[in-house]
Design a protein that fits this description.
Order of helices and strands: HHHHHHHHHHHHHHH
Shape: globular
Organism: Cohnella abietis
Strand content: under 5%
Radius of gyration: 22 Å
Keywords: Cell membrane, Membrane, Transmembrane, Transmembrane helix, Transport
CATH superfamily: MetI-like
Largest sheet: none
CATH topology: MetI-like fold
Distance between the termini: 33 Å
CATH architecture: Orthogonal Bundle
Low-confidence stretches: none
CATH class: Mainly Alpha
Mean pLDDT: 86
Helix content: over 70%
Family: Belongs to the binding-protein-dependent transport system permease family.
Main location: membrane
Protein name: ABC transporter permease
Structural class: mainly alpha
Number of strands: 0
Length: about 260
């Protein structure tokens, strides 16, 4: 009962935002505490947000940036963490320590150097520069999580595969990679939520309106619809719902990934 009450309290702002995004501004002003629309659902709020408010452009930009970031980041951190945890190349302890050290470096310390680096390579005001900044920002924690998970993998199947003549890459692709899917899901969810809702780096690196991501584009959107609450709430719902859906769809993998280390160890 208590958990249900806490869950309702946490979800109430989200429920209020979604339901009020389907109401007219007049109805919201007259009955601000009412949840369910008294008349027809105002689906035109979403149409106005996508077409007039350019949310469709911002949404596509966010999908592009987030998708590319996840794709390349997962490749980098999976291979790096697996090699550190399984292959253990010379100096792997120092490399792992350096990755861990990045967790103690705040974003304020890296903002100016990374910004100057992007400007040096003419990557400001491009999606490529934004993607590189996002990839670098999430590597440390991802490698830490995956490497610790790799350390717990059983070795019996690998030894049997070696006897059958399987090489390192074959063992990685056919045996170990399917086993680390839960922790990869954890990393993916964390990275998706962080990149999808990220605002600061998009603000300082993107200036062209056609390149803006959803959180940044909503600045213009909010100033344009600051009195049209239905359309404004529709825009906010478009930003928020993907993160919730990703977590709900992959929550099973998220829980398995977070608990697998303690269960296997």
């Amino acid at each position: 009962m208590l958990l249900s009450l806490i869950t309702l309290i946490i979800l109430y702002p989200m429920i209020y935002m979604i339901l009020n995004s389907l109401r007219s501004t007049k109805e919201i002003m007259l009955f601000p505490t009412q949840l369910w629309p008294s008349g027809k659902f105002q689906w035109t709020n979403y149409a106005d947000a996508f077409q007039i408010g350019k949310v469709s452009v911002y949404f596509l930009n966010s999908v592009t940036v987030t998708g590319a970031t996840l794709f390349f980041q997962l490749i980098v951190v999976t291979l790096a963490a697996y090699s550190l945890g399984k292959w253990k190349p010379p100096g792997y302890r120092i490399l792992f320590f350096l990755f861990l050290a990045t967790l103690m470096i705040t974003s304020e310390m890296t903002t100016i150097p990374v910004f100057l680096m992007l400007r040096q390579f003419d990557l400001l005001n491009t999606h490529q520069g934004l993607i590189l900044a996002y990839i670098g920002g999430g590597i440390g924690m991802a490698i830490y999580l995956i490497k610790n998970f790799v350390d717990t993998l059983p070795k019996e199947m690998e030894e049997a595969a070696k006897i059958d003549g399987a090489g390192l890459l074959r063992i990685f692709w056919s045996i170990d990679l399917p086993l680390i899917v839960p922790v990869l899901a954890v990393v993916s969810i964390m990275s998706f939520v962080g990149v999808w809702s990220e605002f600061f780096w998009a603000l300082i690196t993107i200036s062209e309106d056609k390149l803006k991501t959803l959180p940044l584009g909503l600045l213009n959107f909010q100033s344009q619809y600051n009195t049209n609450y239905g359309v404004l709430l529709a825009g906010l719902t478009i930003v928020t719902l993907p993160s919730m859906l990703v977590y709900l769809l992959f929550s099973r993998y998220f829980i398995e990934g977070m608990t697998a280390g303690s269960i296997k160890g």
